[in-house]
User: Which sequence fits this backbone?
């Protein structure tokens, strides 16, 4: 009596992490269909002890499927998600394509699980940077009401996919050895370098990644009054995003209460050792579920404002884990 | 009729850069005395075509010296700068020790050159992150008056010295090869990782590096009303710092006028290619004099506020170049 699951984009960074997480969390699967582009079809991926052949994604791929976990890019979701819905499946979509669409719930299960059940076939998984910011801010928003967030991100290569992660390592190795390197996915030198996020620029000077943090936060929190500005930056780190958040509240937050709220928040882990100047780092979060928070301090430049440091695994909570958690709630596993 | 110059900490990252810059800018030197700890004494450094032996720094090292460029750490400056002053030299000090001392000018020559001549023997060179932030903000402050800055830094290894730069490369090479690595100066894993700045924590939760950005900016601008909060982060980059600055003004800044002011500002270079999503990166700034600025945009979350992206070479304008520029003004070269 298990669930019939299809994964769109099974061979990517998020796709392979989805397999790990589904296995780890013993998601009750009765059939697992791995779908990818014609280029990847025929490859074999392991799930638990079974080898599963990757099939080419077509509009007929979804017969009998209950749940589609989609992470093959916005264009693919745009084209194939409607076919999956027509075939009777629910799509949990990791791409940005449907996130801001009216009627498509945008969900972080620890924040707005009730929205899951308002779906009309598609449920959207938020942007990684948004999830990592929103999860620790939610309990603080409920208690002290957030007015404005100034976010600066330190984003890992994984956000650009598995190839980008490989490319960061290969380019760095080449740099150290004094060799030339031809980049294929990363647009700028990446060895010991960083650059403002390479998502497309919009008219007001924000890149799309930044706009996502602004708009998705409002939709998830159901609060259009929250103001967010963000500067998104790609740093030479493999798979966890860090964020420096400056957060202004309506009410003066008490630091001890803030820490108590963070410690009580599902999916959040307070990690710090103030005496030893030791705070969350990408390596601490890599491969782990919780979003790590530390270094909460009163902003000395403005009342009712905190500086907060957060780090989360971009592939896990920032993408694959959040999607599986949505599916778990949806199917009441 | 040249100037007799001594360099304290001649063998460090800033010390060797001082030699390069003095040569490059043809600073009129009649004698160059290289001073370092007993450990480094006896080494030979090249200046122009001459090999100069490094001597051990003692309280008697300054006889006949006109100018001391000091970059051997705060403790060394504390101990030896007074001896240099007693011997009749002027000390341009790269360390933080005297920066906030009453009567010691803290100078960025493009901003407050007049302060140079108020010295009583010691002139302080600001913190690297402060210089890189303050230089592009100065013309905007004069025109629109800054109320508050929220800064997030992306700081290079060079801020922790030449050994840290070597260690970043060696640790990364070891990581790629799957080998263990013993760190000596960097306190945390640094290969494909980052961490909040490791300067000592202060009571209010800010680290010393952050406090420098808050206090030094006020002293340089002669404006105690400017409010600054900062989150300083060490990223795996070699020698240029980047900063995401969110800047609130008294007056609504006009973007075109902002760009015109930045283009006209000495020591600042506007670098951007909006159509190609290409903004300043650490590699662009490395080994170059100007602080690079780009991605100026109106903060959509708050009126009279801009998001600004700046990148500057930490060793050059962040340290050695600024010190030499002070000396040039002082001696009217």
Assistant:
């Amino acid at each position: 009596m298990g669930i019939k699951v299809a994964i769109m984009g099974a061979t990517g960074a998020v796709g392979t992490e989805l397999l790990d997480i589904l296995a780890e969390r013993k998601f009750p699967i009765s059939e697992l269909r791995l779908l990818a582009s014609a280029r990847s079809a025929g490859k074999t991926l392991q799930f638990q002890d079974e080898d599963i052949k990757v099939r080419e994604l077509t509009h007929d791929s979804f017969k009998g499927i209950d749940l589609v976990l989609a992470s093959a890019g916005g264009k693919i979701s745009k084209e194939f998600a409607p076919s999956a819905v027509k075939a009777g499946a629910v799509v949990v979509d990791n791409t940005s394509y449907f996130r801001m669409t009216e009627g498509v719930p945008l969900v972080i299960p620890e924040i707005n699980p009730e929205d899951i059940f308002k779906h009309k076939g598609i449920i959207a998984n938020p942007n990684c940077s948004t999830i990592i910011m929103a999860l620790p801010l939610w309990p603080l928003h409920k208690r002290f009401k957030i007015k404005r967030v100034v976010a600066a991100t330190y984003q890992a290569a994984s956000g650009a996919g598995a190839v980008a992660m490989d490319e960061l390592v290969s380019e760095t190795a080449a740099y150290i050895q004094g060799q030339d390197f031809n980049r294929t996915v990363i647009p700028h030198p990446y060895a010991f370098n960083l650059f403002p996020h390479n998502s497309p620029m919009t008219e007001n000077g924000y890149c799309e990644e930044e706009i996502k943090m602004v708009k998705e936060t409002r939709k998830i929190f159901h609060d259009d009054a929250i103001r967010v500005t963000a500067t998104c930056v790609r740093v030479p780190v493999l798979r966890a995003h860090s964020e420096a958040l400056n957060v202004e509240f309506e009410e003066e937050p008490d630091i001890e209460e803030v820490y108590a709220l963070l410690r009580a928040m599902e999916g959040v882990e307070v990690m710090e050792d103030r005496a030893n100047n030791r705070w969350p780092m990408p390596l601490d979060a890599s491969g782990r579920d919780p979003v790590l928070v530390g270094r909460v301090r009163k902003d000395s430049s403005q009342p009712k404002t905190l500086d907060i440091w957060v780090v989360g695994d971009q592939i896990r909570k920032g993408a694959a884990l959040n999607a599986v958690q949505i599916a778990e709630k949806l199917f009441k596993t």
Summary: The CA atoms of residues 24 and 41 of chain A lie 25 Å apart. The mean pLDDT of chain A is 97. Chain A has two domains: 3-125+319-330, 130-314.
